[in-house]
Amino acid sequence: MPEDELSRSSHSNPGKSLVNGIKTNPASNSPKGTLSVPMGPPVYVDLAYIPNHCSGKNTDPEFFKRVRASYYVVSGNDAANGEPSRAVLDALLEGKSQWGENLQVTLIPTHDTEVTREWYQQTHEKQQELNIMVLASSSTVVMQDESFPACKIEF
């Protein structure tokens, strides 16, 4: 981009700036309601719950680039609200592909959903390439006349 175009574009878009080469607009009211957070080194954790029951409302590839977990829990079980979201599961693949290291990642769905099954089947080759394992469990937790699916996680 020529210098005069660059100058014009920055004047025509006040409030937009570059953070580590990425356009940001701190004053925007994005549909995801995200705040502009300066880029930093990724955070490594053992276990992370995918936010908002794996809904696409506020989880994108950037989450998976920045929050690098050995285990991600997918707790969504509400198809009417898009939980779990196929876009979020795809974002895991996209984010993990940019890690630059082939660490083992385990995805733990707490419910057997059609979205999760279809995603697993359609992206199985990519999962293997990225060293992502998806757990399936028939375990059940029973508490005070209530039962629900569960996974056992060992560290």
TrEMBL record:
Gene Ontology BP terms? axonogenesis; dendrite development; microtubule cytoskeleton organization; regulation of microtubule depolymerization
Highest taxon of source: Eukaryota
> Where are the residues of the annotated region Disordered?
1-37
Under the GO molecular function aspect, what terms does this record hold? actin binding; microtubule binding
Point to the regions of Polar residues compositional bias. 22-33
Look up the record and report any one GO term of the cellular component aspect. synapse
Q: What is this protein called?
A: MAP1A protein
Source organism per entry reads Drymodes brunneopygia
